[in-house]
Amino acid sequence: QVQLVESGGGLVQPGGSLRLSCAASESILTIYVMEWYRQAPGKQRELVATIISGGNTNYRDSVKGRFTISRDNAKNMVYLQMNSLKPEDTAVYYCHAQRSWGQGTQVTVSS
């Protein structure tokens, strides 16, 4: 089972940017779907973005036009570029693939 490790979270002001990374322990060439989820305090975990092996992507409405998911199959990496961040984007962000979850990385958007 693939292991996933997220990084890149932190504290950023509203309007700022962050790039999250997800490192997989094995080749992701055969992993069709890779996803980013997030969970804010007191709320359910929600799907943020999906990328399939062919490169097609999908986003939840609240992040469309601001977030970009990408994957580098050669490096076994998945990324989430987050621009124009808002306080409501504050959450722990998780990488997910097959039945595996990473440990999460905290993103806090605050002035």
Total number of helices? 0
Q: What value does the Rg take, in angstroms?
A: 13 Å
Share of helical residues: under 10%
Which band does the percent of strand residues land in?
over 45%
pLDDT averaged residue by residue: 96
Amino- and carboxy-terminal Cα gap = 40 Å
Structural class by secondary-structure content: mainly beta
Number of beta-strand segments: 11
Q: Which runs of at least 5 residues are low in confidence (pLDDT < 50)?
A: none
Largest sheet: 7 strands, mixed
Give the topology string: H per helix, E per strand: EEEEEEEEEEE
The backbone outline, from C-alpha atoms, is globular
Q: Helix and strand layout, with pairings?
A:
Elements lengths: L3 E4 L2 E3 L5 E7 L8 E7 L6 E7 L4 E3 L7 E6 L4 E6 L8 E7 L2 E2 L3 E5 L2
Parallel strand pairs: 2-11
Antiparallel strand pairs: 1-3, 3-8, 4-5, 4-9, 5-6, 7-8, 9-10, 9-11
Main traits of this protein?
111 residues, 7-stranded mixed beta sheet, 4-stranded antiparallel beta sheet, 0% helix
What do you see in this structure?
Helices cover 0% and strands 51% of the residues. The protein has strands at 4-7, 10-12, 18-24, 33-39, 46-52, 57-59, 67-72, 77-82, 91-97, 100-101, 105-109. Strands 2, 4, 5, 6, 9, 10 and 11 form a seven-stranded mixed beta sheet that branches. Strands 1-3-8-7 form a four-stranded antiparallel beta sheet, with no helix packed on it. A hairpin with a 6-residue loop joins strand 4 and strand 5 (46-52). The chain is globular, with a radius of gyration of 13 Å. The model has no long low-confidence stretch (mean pLDDT 96).
